[in-house]
Amino acid sequence: MKISSAFSNAFSLTRQVGSLRIPRSRLIKSAHLLERIGLAAVGASCGLYVGATLLRQKGGLFESGWIVLITMLYGALSYYVGIDLAGNVARKSTSGISEEWNGSEPIEIMSAAGTFSAAIAATLSVSILVLDQNLPNGLIAFVAGCWVVGSSLQVAAGTMARNDEAPINEQ
Q1: How far is 158 from 107, CA to CA, in rounded Å?
Q2: Cα–Cα distances in Å, from 110 out to 9, 22, 123, 142, 149?
Q3: What is the distance between the alpha carbons of residues 165 and 35, in angstroms, rounded to a whole number?
Q4: Closest CA to 155 of 10, 40, 2
Q5: pLDDT above 80: residue 17
Q6: Who has greater pLDDT, 25 or 3?
Q7: How far, in Å, CA of 76 to CA of 53, rounded?
Q8: Roughly how many angstroms between the first and final C-alpha of the chain, as a whole number?
Q9: CA distances from 127 to 17, 44, 65, 120 (A)
Q10: Residue 91: what pLDDT?
Q11: Which residue among 27, 63, 82, 99 sits deepest, i.e. has the most Cβ atoms within 10 Å of its Cβ?
Q12: Rounded-to-10 torsion of CA 7, 13, 19, 25
């Protein structure tokens, strides 16, 4: 019963917000901003695991605690900018029947490849930390490379998508 009352309270809150006459576009933009902040938090947590894995390797290049902060910030940036591509790029590529090249495919492929590579790096890092494994430096370098390449692809794809949708002012 408590769950159903929580749902009804949420719906009544929605109705009250609807009576405040908040413009729909502003509400959608606010929701989109919250979504992007959530993605940045996910990217930062993935960066935390990758940074902790790199920090754990003794006698290596990454003995400073700054590596954790750097990987977290870069992860937050890459997930904020790159995962949730702008709507125009996503709408351009939804032509299911037509096989025309519209220019958004490389952006989507870069974003997908970057997300995949960064996720693989985070997954490997979590497994290394949880299972308390001591791995050769080559595998740790592979994890770091996956993180850097994946995050960089996400940033590049997000930047390209936003530049592609920017209106050109003709005067």
Answers
A1: 8
A2: 42, 36, 20, 19, 10
A3: 20
A4: 40
A5: no
A6: 25
A7: 17
A8: 62
A9: 44, 17, 20, 11
A10: 47
A11: 82
A12: -90
Distance between alpha carbon 92 and the CA centroid of its chain, in Å? 21
How is residue 46 written in tokens?
A: 């993935």
DSSP conformation class of 63 = -
Q: For residue 93, what is the enclosing H or E element?
A: none
CB of 149 closer than 8 Å to CB of 117: yes
3-state secondary structure labels for all residues of 123-136: HHHHHHHHCCCCCC
Does residue 126 register a pLDDT over 80?
A: yes
**What residues contact 139, with CB distance under 8 A and at least 6 apart?**
124
In angstroms, the CA 147 to CA 118 distance is 5
pLDDT band, very low/low/confident/very high, at 54 (cuts 50, 70, 90): confident
Task: Return the pLDDT at 63.
Answer: 73
- The pTM of the full predicted model, rounded to 2 decimals, is 0.69
Amino acid in position 41: A
Answer yes or no: is pLDDT of 171 > 50. Answer: no
**Pair of tokens at residue 87:** 């709507």
* E strands, 48-96, in order: none
Kindly report the length of the chain.
171
What distance in Å separates the CA atoms of residue 152 and residue 59, rounded to the nearest whole number?
Answer: 27
For the chain, state the CA radius of gyration.
21
Choose among 113, 116, 130, 109: nearest CA to 53: 130
